Amino acid sequence: MLEKIRSIILEFIEVDAEDIQPEADLRDLGLNSYDFMNVVARFEQEFSIVIPDRDIHLLETVNDVIEYLETAMAKR
């Protein structure tokens, strides 16, 4: 899961792949608001889920994303 999330994030920003660790804060990686929304849209597309607007604030770290996606995929 981490590798897939890493590759999606790297589509939108230039950062060392090794900086994208579970504890990394998405905003600290350099994602601006526009990039962040594009990353969320790619997560939805890649994992065939919908991330409601009300849940977006839950995605602060890479680990938050991993946990959210795993939970969302288990529910479908």
Please supply descriptive tags for the structure shown above.
3 helices, 76 residues, globular, mainly alpha
How would you sum up this structure, described in words?
With 76 residues, this protein is mainly alpha-helical. It contains three helices and no strands. It has helices at residues 2-10, 33-47, 62-75. The radius of gyration is 11 Å and the shape is globular.
Largest sheet: none
Report the radius of gyration as a whole number of Å: 11 Å
Structural class: mainly alpha
Distance between the termini: 17 Å
Number of β-strand runs:
0
Counted by DSSP, the helix tally is: 3
Concise account of the structure shown:
With 76 residues, the chain is mostly helical. It contains three helices and no strands.
How are the SSEs ordered, and which strands pair?
Elements: H1 2-10, H2 33-47, H3 62-75
